[in-house]
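Reviewers asked in the last cycle whether our approach scales beyond single polypeptides. To address this, we selected a multi-component target totalling 620 residues and predicted its structure end to end. The input consisted of the following lines:
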Amino acid sequence: MNHIAIIPLLLPLFTGICLLLLREQRHYVKRAIAGISSLAQIGVAFALLQQVSNGDILVYALSNWPAPFGITLVADRLAAFMVLTTALLAVFALMYAMRGTDRNGRQFHILFQLQLFGLNGAFLTGDLFNLFVFFEVLLLASYSLLLHGGGRKRIRSGLHFVVINVVGSALFLFGVGTLYGVLGTLNMADLALEVAKVPAADMGLVKAAALLLFVVFALKAALLPLYLWLPTAYSQTSAPAAALFAIMTKVGAYSILRVYTLIFGNQAGPLSSLLDPWLLPMALATIAIGSFGLLGSKRLRQQVAYLVVISAGTLLTGFSLESTTGIAAGLYYLPHTTFATAALFLLADLIVQRRGQMEDRLEAGYVITQQKFLGGVFFALAILAAGLPPLSGFLGKFMLLRAALDHAALPYIMGFVLTSSLLTIIALARSGSLIFFEANAVDKSTNTSVKQVEPEPLQTRELLPVFALLGLCILMTFKAGSINAYCLATAQQVLDTQAYISAVLGHGAQP
Amino acid sequence: MEAMISILIGVLTAGGVYLCLRSHTFPVVLGLTLLSYGVNLFLFMMGRLVIGKPPIISDDASSYADPIPQALVLTAIVISFAMTAYIIVLALKARNEMGNDHVDGKDVR
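The resulting structure, written as structure tokens, was:
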């Protein structure tokens, strides 16, 4: 058995445990261990990607219990791609945190590693109940990371986040329980086989369970009616946590892609394409509401949080096309939007520190120090996020629209995606000009004069994570050909359920 | 028996949902607890109601109780227990920080 499939789980878990044993005073040691572990995770993710890039599906049976009796980890192209995206994002979020955010509260590094453990586990697991467990691991870590640093607003938004996610977990268990009760298995490959032969009398139950799971995944992915927790939670938390959380909505999108192409995929007979009436309209509506939120935001970080909402909608628009090109476009867009929004969260934090009492309110204040430099970086990131040429955002949206060309809903997809891009440009241009160009000596909310912040020289070191994330997106632009080829191969593999089933259950298994 | 258990799960869940929608943190925490009781019971029952049957293979058993839901519910109980503890601490912290126990932090009285 090839052990590489479990290393992305063991590495952060053991790092977290090691960090737990260290005393709080030794924060340099903690930083070093966390940093080395995160770098090593990139290496492991690359090695995993190498192993699966030829189309192999690595199956790891825990304790060597054969599927479907034991828990399996399954590493295919999609899982490896998500693990690599997470590892790359994590290392730069951690780098930013090491400027001092990690010292604002205890156990930051431990929680960070456990969050990575949960994320990697959710991507690699091949068992539906295990997916629930890893969701809980990443949520528990995120609850604490969200509150890192404390403060009134953070606790209020944290309370909402925790309550809605606990309700979501209960719904997840109802869905999983119903599926087990009817189908008698929880292994995803085995479920795919069982769903195909479910008797007509139980069809309704399975359908209800499937749609219940969709509600849970939509909640994690922040789809339209269930996105309300996101803007406050993400805009109030500390910058490195917000940057890492950029991947959290993608876990929901990943789960939707995995569960509804594998279990309720083409082989599922009458239960296939369950989401057809829901996913595309909801994704487009999410794009619309996100764009309005973007225009109506009063704070920069809130605006970036709405960019996360829009990106979830765009991503799921790609996935809902159910074609190879559509899924591939979504997969190319996924790391791009994760890196772009994470970089914007980090940059917003740097801007907050330079505006004193104005924080990130989108009102004219004193022109901040080094406005040209920071403004230039903001400009580049805004281009990236809005999807203007020449950067990867444009390529992602272009691929998405090209994939939608022969789809029946093409006019809607074109209309929503392009209008939202225009609204994004307008909103970000307005924020940029308010923050960087307009000077106003009076704070309108308190009617006191705005104090100019002492010019604090901006060190390149501080901007390094932002530049690195921007650099990753530029690299994605230059390497678009090979990344797109990988995404297309991934999409083909995702739609080829038979390959997944025979990899997990052996070659005799037929739907 | 089945009907009684189903009604019990239904009542627990309905009570949980109602309390979750209240405006103060304490009822919300209670609601989440009830909801987790309901879902744990539901998960447990998914192996069907069987009395006096062994869950592991033995020579003189004619039928078995399904052991998987028992393992699942154990996991779910541990998780919901930890969540409840966390939410209680968070609710107390919110009460201290905001000076009242309204979920949005506004004092309505």
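The mean pLDDT of chain B is 88. We regard this as preliminary and will revisit it once experimental data from Aim 1 are available.
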